[in-house]
Structures are given as structure tokens and as C-alpha cells.
Amino acid sequence: MKSYKDLDIYNLAFSYAVEVHKISMKLPKFELYEQGSQIRRSSKSIKDNIVEGYGRRTYKQDFIKFLIYAHASLLECYSQLEMIDELYDFPEIKELKHNYDKLGGKIYSFIQYVENNWKT
């Protein structure tokens, strides 16, 4: 790995954050700064925590800590998607929830990989 951009979890998180941003801008005006802002921040936090953890990869425990933060942000984002899915009719939300569910599994597996195999 030469860069965080080599991480599949980063690339997926980035791509999904772009999708979330676009969908959130379709929310009713009164939701743009509440539900919309919250889901935009949580979706972008996933990729940002992966990047920050990678930047601290020399320190295994810091790397793991930020990967756990990324996973926690993913859970928050997923919760926001569930609420939007319940309140509004955006067909693309179901696929996005499915994608985030798979990404959560990948982040969890990567955390386990780092815990068991990462050399500091």
C-alpha cells in the first residue's frame, strides 16, 4: 500500500459519500440543514476516519482506533438512511443501505486484519 487510495474500503466510502450527498440534496428544504446535514457529515466521516487512521498506520492501535471510528460513523450514516427511507420515497436508498451494509463488513474484516497482521 502506497496510499490510503489503495484501500478498497476508502474508495467505496468515498463513492458512497458522493451518492449520499447527491441524494441528501433532494430532501425537502426544511430537511437540508437537519437530516441532510447529519447524513452528509456521517457519510463523509467514514472516509475521513479511514484516511486519518491510515496516516497513523505506524501506530497500530491508532490505526485500529480510527478504523473503529469509521465503522461507528458508518452505523450512524446507516441509521440516517433508515430514517430517510422511512420518511421519503427515494428508490436509490435501498441499494445504498445494502452497499453500506457490505462496506461495514469490509471495514470490520480490515480491522481484524490489522489487529492480527499489522506490523509496527
Relative strand content: under 5%
Q: How helical, in percent, are the residues?
A: over 70%
Sequence stretches where pLDDT stays below 50 over 5 or more residues:
none
Structural class: mainly alpha
Distance between the termini: 14 Å
Biggest sheet descriptor? none
- How many E-type strands? 0
Provide the residue-averaged pLDDT: 96
Topology order in helix (H) and strand (E) letters: HHHH
Would you give an account of this structure?
With 120 residues, the protein is mainly α. It is 77% helix and 0% strand. The protein contains 4 helices and no strands. Helix 1 packs antiparallel against helix 2, helix 1 runs antiparallel to helix 4 and helix 2 packs antiparallel against helix 3 (60-87). It starts with 7 loop residues before the first helix and ends with a helix.
Q: What would you say about this model in short?
A:
The protein is built from four helices and no strands. With 120 residues, the protein is an all-alpha fold.
Overview features:
mainly alpha, 120 residues, elongated, single chain
List the helices and strands and how they pair.
Blueprint: H1 8-24, H2 35-55, H3 60-87, H4 92-117
Helix pairs in contact: 1-2, 1-4, 2-3, 3-4
